[in-house]
């Protein structure tokens, strides 16, 4: 694989070619990836997969017209043809008064921040197989587990580079490792499943495969013989694995595209209280070895820690340059893009700050409620905020988590759910988006 400097130079080279061929402005992305994954089932090797890819994407502007093209053929002749095709397409495209590169005076200057995302390691398939087997063995060793969907382990390394015609060129590399296990318990039509997994940028930071497998087994066995719940309105408590989806609903509603198109249930909410005062939601792109850390955004702008919600108040939209121009605002450093198409927006290491209450205290006064550990289908209507999802989990009775329940639906409206949300104090950074245990009052449950 190329080095980050070589990837940066490739992106800069095709931008120079585009300018020389007649483009008024251009930017380019170069992305390369190698990945290895191993899966096992019932103690035997099931699959070994290896992939390698390298792609280059070019976006050109001719006046207010633009076009994007991409290729995995990196030969000189193919790149020359790519430039010609992109410019020809741009000249036939409709004008877009908001399109263009990021403001030049806002570009990241100087050295790209080092975030410790790449441990430089290479892992042999045998080592991944050993980790996958260890995870599955630990899960199957839990009393009550009756079958397995398998264990898995993976390793990857990627390089991402961006260059623009008005002064930015940067690149970075990142490694990634993962271990997972998924097993079943019970018999026949009453079988239940659950899983656990862990991912890390550095291999040394992975949790032990045995711990991952044991948790997968224990979670599965705990769900045996689920009961039903009666319909009604009650408090719902989300475990951290599932509560993170609430952040996704917020981000979708405050993204530049949703605001400029007027398709957000939070369209008029900027500067107002949309959560309880206990809730603060932040994004930290500079978190060392974070799963979604990045030193610059998809347009070459610097990135920094941002509080989207502070003590319940909505503080900002997520804006790339195009949506910022349309709204008469400044881009927020959240642009994201692949090798093709225009930038959109995305967060990095998104999280809800921990509250002051232990999870046990959070549920202590719930006489009748549900602790949700799995959600299925559905989601939130981005325009109205109406929310409905299938779910499974455990009953909460007189302040205690008790028996498993399944096949019910939870519903509400996102604006009401946000205002009635209380976070516990058990935040851990395990995923790309992280939340503590969350309690939401007054949700509608449709069960038996």
Please characterize this protein's 3D structure.
With 448 residues, the protein is of the alpha+beta class. The chain has 2 domains: 4-221, PmbA/TldD fold; 226-448, no CATH class. It is 23% helix and 37% strand. The chain contains 10 helices and 19 strands. Strand 9 (306-310) and strand 10 (313-314) form a beta hairpin. The model has no long low-confidence stretch (mean pLDDT 95). Residues 231-447 form the Metalloprotease TldD/E C-terminal domain. This is TldD/PmbA family protein.
Task: Please provide a brief summary of the model.
With 448 residues, the chain is of the alpha+beta class. It is 23% helix and 37% strand. It folds into two domains: 4-221, PmbA/TldD superfamily (PmbA/TldD fold), CATH 3.30.2290.10; 226-448, no CATH class.
Following the backbone from N to C, one meets helices and strands in this order, namely HEEEHHEEEHEHHHEEEHEEEHEEEHEEE
Strand line-up across the major sheet: 3-2-1-4-5-6
The oligomeric state of the chains shown is single chain
Total helical elements = 10
Question: β content, as a range?
Answer: 35-45%
- Helix/sheet category: alpha+beta
Which features would summarize this protein structure in a list?
448 residues, alpha+beta, PmbA/TldD fold, six-stranded antiparallel sheet, 10 helices, 19 strands, globular, metallopeptidase activity
SSE blueprint and pairings:
Layout (H helix, E strand, L loop, with lengths): L3 H17 L4 E17 L2 E19 L2 E7 L4 H17 L32 H16 L4 E20 L4 E17 L6 E9 L8 H14 L9 E7 L1 H4 L1 H10 L1 H5 L20 E3 L22 E5 L2 E2 L6 H7 L7 E2 L7 E2 L4 E3 L6 H6 L3 E13 L5 E12 L2 E14 H6 L1 E3 L9 E2 L3 E9 L2
Parallel strand pairs: 7-14, 13-18
Antiparallel strand pairs: 1-2, 1-4, 2-3, 4-5, 5-6, 7-19, 8-9, 8-13, 9-10, 11-12, 14-15, 15-16, 16-19, 17-19
Helix pairs in contact: 3-4
């Amino acid at each position: 694989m190329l080095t980050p400097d070589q990837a940066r130079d490739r992106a800069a080279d095709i931008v120079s070619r585009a300018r020389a061929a007649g483009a008024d402005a251009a930017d380019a992305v170069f992305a390369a990836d190698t990945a290895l994954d191993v899966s096992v089932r019932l103690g035997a090797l099931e699959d070994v997969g290896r992939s390698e890819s390298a792609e280059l994407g070019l976006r050109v502007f001719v006046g207010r017209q633009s076009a994007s093209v991409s290729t995995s053929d990196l030969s000189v002749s193919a790149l020359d043809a790519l430039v010609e095709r992109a410019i020809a397409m741009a000249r036939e495209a409709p004008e877009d008064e908001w399109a263009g590169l990021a403001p030049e005076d806002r570009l990241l200057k100087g050295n790209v921040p080092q975030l410790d995302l790449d441990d430089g390691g290479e892992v042999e398939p045998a080592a991944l197989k050993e980790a996958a087997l260890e995870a599955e063995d630990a899960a199957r060793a839990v009393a009550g587990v009756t079958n397995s969907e398998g264990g898995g382990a993976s390793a990857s390394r990627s390089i991402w580079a961006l260059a623009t015609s008005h002064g930015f060129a940067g690149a970075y590399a990142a490694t990634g490792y993962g271990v997972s296990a998924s097993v079943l318990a019970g018999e026949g039509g009453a079988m239940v499943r659950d899983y656990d997994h862990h991912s890390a940028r550095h291999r040394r930071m992975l949790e032990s495969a045995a711990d991952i497998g044991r948790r997968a087994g224990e979670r599965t066995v705990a769900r045996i013989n689920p009961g039903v719940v009666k319909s009604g309105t009650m408090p719902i408590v989300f475990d951290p694995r599932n509560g993170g989806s609430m952040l996704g609903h917020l981000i979708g509603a405050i993204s530049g595209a949703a605001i400029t198109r007027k398709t957000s249930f939070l369209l008029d909410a900027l500067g107002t209280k949309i959560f309880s005062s206990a809730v603060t939601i932040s994004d930290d792109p500079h978190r060392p070895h974070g799963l979604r850390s990045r030193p610059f955004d998809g347009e070459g702008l610097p990135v920094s820690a941002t509080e989207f919600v502070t003590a319940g108040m909505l503080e900002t939209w997520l804006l790339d340059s195009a949506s910022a121009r349309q709204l008469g605002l400044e881009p927020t450093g959240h642009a994201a893009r692949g090798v093709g198409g225009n930038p959109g927006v995305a967060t990095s290491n998104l999280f809800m700050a921990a509250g002051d209450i232990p999870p046990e205290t959070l549920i202590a006064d719930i006489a009748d409620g549900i602790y949700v550990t799995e959600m299925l289908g559905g989601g939130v209507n981005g325009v109205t905020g109406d929310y409905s999802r299938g779910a499974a989990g455990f009953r909460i009775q007189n302040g205690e988590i008790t028996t498993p329940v399944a096949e019910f639906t939870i519903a509400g409206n996102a604006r009401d759910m946000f205002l009635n949300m209380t976070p516990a104090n058990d935040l851990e950074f395990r995923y790309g988006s992280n939340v503590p245990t969350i309690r939401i009052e007054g949700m509608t449950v449709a069960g038996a």
